Amino acid sequence: MLSAALLTASCIPQSSATPQNVTRKHPTIVSLNPCTDAVLAEVADPAQILAISYYSHDPRASSMDASQASRFPATRGTVEEVLALKPDVVLGSTFTDPATASAYSRLGLRLERIGMAMTVAESHAQIRQIATLAGHPQRGDALIARIDAALSSAAPPSGTTPIPTVVWQSGGMVPGDGTLIADMLRRTGFTNFAAARGLGQADLLPLERMLADPPELILMAGQTAETGKGDDRVLSHPALKALKSTRRATFDSKLLYCGGPTLIAAARRLAQIRNSSPERGGGPSQMVEGAKQ
Predict the structure, then answer these.
(1) pLDDT value at position 287?
(2) 248: which residues sit within 8 A by CB, 6+ positions away?
(3) Cα dihedral sign, 143-117-62-227
């Protein structure tokens, strides 16, 4: 019997018998916020993604294309839902409830907290982190290369004077200087007009102050017909028409917060707006409509 077993073993091709050639299983992952959803979809195999956040199935909150998001199940991130999926890794955020995080730990689920990227460099680091967790670091490098190419293409010509710009959000809110959109503005030929006047993240810029001290450009990043109506009366106030030297352009609010592939669409839109200025042959129109993202 022993000789028969040895004979059988000797007939097995060496390439099939060596454990080094066994395919390594990549981890399964559940993502709980829309920013990590979009990155994960770019760097992981579809079979690895057990669920993305329910935000990505909602056009008002998603940073992904609807057709791409619909390929994956969605979860609201309850402990019961996530546990039933049995993922190897859970991508949460720095805002993950401590009780929920503790429950994941007790149940043996690995939680990776991914913060909100405040710069392009931080976004790149998060892409590398998620791609490495997924077991595909080279896909992270490829996504970063695409983002860098988009930023290079969207960069203003050398010697161009930056355009003083207010990013005006629902209710008259403006972003501070230490934000992702502020970094994107700098990279694409704009300056953060509100931050230069002492306004910080989530401060409100009243209509009266805008009229008294207007910027060269207002990016109206409020709600849209697709995303639902917010408190946007100030953004469309008739008095803004009196600002003859100020241009206005729409900017999808979904491009404000997430890094990853969202930066590609944001860079293209910002370059389009910059290049549509009358000084660049874009015509005298006061309002630049949003392009399809």
Answers:
(1) 53
(2) 217, 218, 219, 220, 240, 286, 287, 288
(3) negative
What's the 3-state SS for the chain? Answer: CHHHHHHHHHCCCHHHHCHHHCCCCCCCEEECCHHHHHHHHHHCCHHHEEEEEHHHHCCCCCCCCHHHHCCCCEECCCHHHHHHHCCCEEEEECCCCHHHHHHHHHCCCEEEEECCCCCHHHHHHHHHHHHHHHCCHHHHHHHHHHHHHHHHHHCCCCCCCCEEEEEEEHHHEECCCCCHHHHHHHHCCEEEHHHHCCCCCCEECCHHHHHHCCCCEEEEECCCCCCCCCCCCCCCCHHHHHCCCCEEEECCHHHCCCCCCHHHHHHHHHHHHHHCCHHHCCCCCCEECCCCC
Q: What is the pTM of this model?
A: 0.84
- Torsion sign (Cα): 73, 60, 174, 271: positive
Q: What is the pLDDT of residues 84-115, one digit of tens each?
A: 999 999 999 988 889 999 999 999 999 999 99
The answer to whether the beta carbons of residues 180 and 115 sit under 8 Å apart is: no
* Confidence check: pLDDT of 293 > 50: no
Task: Output the pLDDT for position 223.
Answer: 65
Summarised one tens digit per residue, pLDDT across range 139-180 is: 999 999 999 999 999 999 999 999 999 999 988 999 989 999
Question: Judging by DSSP bridges, how do beta strands 190-192 and 217-221 pair with one another?
Answer: unpaired
Of 58-62, 89-93, 124-128, give the lowest mean pLDDT range: 58-62
Higher pLDDT, 23 or 53: 53
What is the rounded distance in angstroms from the CA atom of residue 262 to the CA atom of residue 136?
20
How far out from the chain centre does Cα 254 lie? 8
